[in-house]
Design a protein that fits this description.
about 120 residues, 1 helix, alpha+beta
Amino acid sequence: IVRWMGTEATAEPNPGGLYLLNLAGRATARGQFTEVVPVHRLAYSFGWEGNDQTPPGSSLVEIDLVEESGGTRVKLTHSGLADREICDSHEKGWTHYLGRLAITAAGGDPGPDKM
């Protein structure tokens, strides 16, 4: 994951397992995996350490990988965010990171994460 998102990660990728994702010392995401279906689906609680608006466990991220002709479509749903402003902020972040994931999946190097 750190090839395209964050600078340090600790994860126990199984239902009930925990994860920590450090974004270059600026913020740390923390949560718990709720569903893990290898190469198909990943769901986990999400939040930011030290953040009252989006604390750990306050929202849910669901990622589905759907096979399509010539590739794979990534469907990401982030639910449970408190308001429109927080949704917009996370949409900006996910757009940034999905772009970096696409570069990585194509065999490229997105370079250091500056978000």
